[in-house]
Amino acid sequence: MAINCGIVGLPNIGKTTIFSALTSTVTETVNYLFSTVNPNIGIVDVPDTRLAKLSDIFKPKKTIPASVEFVDIAGLVKGASRGEGLGNQFLSRIREVGVIAHIVRCFENPDILHINNKIDPASDIETINIELALADLDTLAKRRERAEKNLKNPAEKKITELVLSVLDKIEPLLQDGRPVRQAALNDEEKAAVYDCHFITAKPQLYVCNVDEDGIKSFTSNGIGNDFIKAVKKQAEAEGSEAVCICGKFEAELSDIKDPNEKLAFLEELGLKESGLSALIHSAYKLLGLQTFFTTGEDECRAWTIHIGDTAPKAARAIHTDFERGFIKAEVYSCDDIFQYGSEAKIKTAGKMRLEGKEYIVRDGDVMFFKFNL
């Protein structure tokens, strides 16, 4: 399952700097507005120490981690929904991503311009969220117009009435500057307006862009400065996630190749994981995702699936034939092999299981699928 994350925010708040640090990509980072005209795209491995441990045990020819695609979308300004800045062009890019990482500046530096000449995370967040809601209102109006015309078609009347009822639920939220994702829609209702591709229906997490003092204050008390507190308050109100990232530290960390040196670097800062790891883990949580593994002499690989997926659906992540011809799956936990050291010992201990079509895959499962076509 491919995951793509769009990085959005006001112009000149450090989006491209963070993108470059997270993806180890050299991109244009300059101190003026709209420096990112075309979106930068970078694909990064999902950090997972379990996969590294599995590779140490199996010594495969290849180790393939799960991956996330990051898309650095140019800054949005007030009026973007009406075409201000390069609004319409940028908003269309956001519709293509699966989850939104909203970057918010949480540090003061007189040498780095801010579009509003002041650091106010709550105001910055409101500006972006309102523009996204306004863009969705425009989409809603066009969809409503099309649906009302379809009411005249008896064959389309039932589904059209459902579409209109869903739009009636969504519209007051958007008019209030609130996102579509806060609407209490069931699966049928979501499917009815799926073709709208509402931007604010996408999961959104917040990224506090902090300087060195900011990350140190966060690690020292687990709360951070007043700017970070404001972002966390907004995230909590939305039932979302907030992480802190210092671009400078992430860039330094990405230059370190030795895992032990990386760990020492993080410990020195008082961090349990890198900003990249924190961001990806938060995205997984918001999207309801988890990881299972396949192992062997040829390769050890991490696969991304939804929490609650059955064994056949997990098999589909590898190939549709695996799902169609699914018979059984040999399953054990990666913790089992870390404890026992080999599959033979796992079998002897009775930890190897044969699971059928109803089995709900768990995070960290190691699976071998048996199928027949």
What can you see in these coordinates?
By secondary structure, the protein is of the alpha/beta class. It has 3 domains: 203 residues, Rossmann fold, CATH 3.40.50.300; 68 residues, Obg-related GTPase Ych/YyaF, coiled-coil domain (DNA polymerase, domain 1, Orthogonal Bundle); 64 residues, Ubiquitin-like (UB roll). The chain has a 6-stranded mixed sheet with strand order 2-4-1-5-6-7, with helices on both faces. It has a 3-stranded mixed sheet with strand order 3-9-8, sandwiched between helices. Strand 8 and strand 9 form a beta hairpin. The longest helix has 30 residues. The protein is flat. The chain starts with a strand and ends with a strand. About 3% of the residues have low confidence.
CA radius of gyration is: 23 Å
Shape: flat
CATH fold-level assignment of the largest domain: Rossmann fold
| Alpha-carbon distance between the two ends | 23 Å
Can you describe this structure in just a few lines?
By secondary structure, the protein is an alpha/beta fold. Helices cover 44% and strands 19% of the residues.
Helices and strands, with pairings:
Elements (H helix, E strand, L loop, with lengths): L2 E6 L6 H9 L16 E6 L3 H10 L3 E3 L2 E6 L14 H8 L4 E7 L15 H30 L6 H19 L11 H6 L11 E6 L2 H10 L4 H13 L3 E4 L1 H8 L4 H11 L5 H13 L1 E6 L4 E8 L4 H8 L1 H5 L1 E8 H7 L2 H6 L4 E3 L9 E7 L2
Parallel strand pairs: 1-4, 1-5, 3-9, 5-6, 6-7
Antiparallel strand pairs: 2-4, 8-9, 10-11, 10-12
Helix pairs in contact: 1-9, 4-5
Key structural traits:
DNA polymerase, domain 1, 373 residues, Rossmann fold, 3-stranded mixed sheet, Ubiquitin-like (UB roll), 15 helices, 6-stranded mixed sheet
